[in-house]
Design a protein that fits this description.
flat, 3-stranded mixed sheet, alpha+beta
Length: 75
Amino acid sequence: MTIGSLQPRWIGHRLRAETGIVVDHRLGVVDAHAIAVNAHHRLLHRVPRLSEATVHVSPTAPDGVDRHAVLAHHR
């Protein structure tokens, strides 16, 4: 697993974070989800005052295909 980004934000008096992780493309949905839940849990324990986190999972791209290319024009 690789962390792609981490964006903490204060919303009122609560700290929330959005993060992206990259997992092996050969993993199934259940295993990728378990990794995301583990990352979420670790963030809650390691980042002081963090109350919630969203973890986006992306597969590795050994074939060079950008799985988010369809969204590029929205950035």
